[in-house]
Amino acid sequence: SDLKTPKTFRQAINSPQRREWENAIEEEISSMENMGVWKLAVLPKGRKAIGCTWVFKIKQNAHGQIDRFRARLCAQGFSQIPGRDFTSTFAAVSRHATIRTLLAIAAHLDLDIVQIDIKSAYLNGILKEDIYMRIPDGMKAPPGKVLKLVRSIYGLKQSGKIWSDCL
């Protein structure tokens, strides 16, 4: 009954599941640091760092039992400036009719269908633009530093295109 998915960092750390949310946040930050998603930097003059937010999710198994607590760090891409922070946002998507046609052909030819789920997919794309992001809640960093993003993260305007190009 008191198990609610928090909407903010503050709600997460003030909830009865504080320890689980702290662990999920630490896991996300460690994962991003291990993948080299950012570098600590000083914000250049005339630049503005975009914000970021935490998105929390309680993952459940097929029986409705808690599987894990998930925290995802997302950039607030709505504050990106076109032409400076990104140039293109197009990413190819498949139409349902195309997928149905491919499945029908595979069934007719008795082909095997394989699907993959790539964990933290967007983190695999390398950014071409210089994007600076504020330090997220829950992360320790020296004063006056920001994160210079090296890889795309969820929430950036160009993340879908970068991942599509990478794939």
Please name the defining characteristics of this protein.
single chain, 167 residues, alpha+beta, 3-stranded antiparallel sheet, two-stranded antiparallel ribbon, 5 strands, 23% strand
General description of the model:
This protein has 167 residues and is of the alpha+beta class. Helix content is 26%, strand content 23%. The strands form two sheets. Strands 1-5-4 form a three-stranded antiparallel beta sheet, with no helix packed on it. Strands 2-3 form a two-stranded antiparallel sheet. The longest helix is centred in the first third of the chain and has 17 residues, at 18-34.
SSE sequence, one letter per element: HHEEEHEEH
Spatial gap, N to C terminus: 42 Å
Q: Which regions have little confidence, pLDDT < 50, spanning 5+ residues?
A: none
Strand order of the largest sheet: 1-5-4
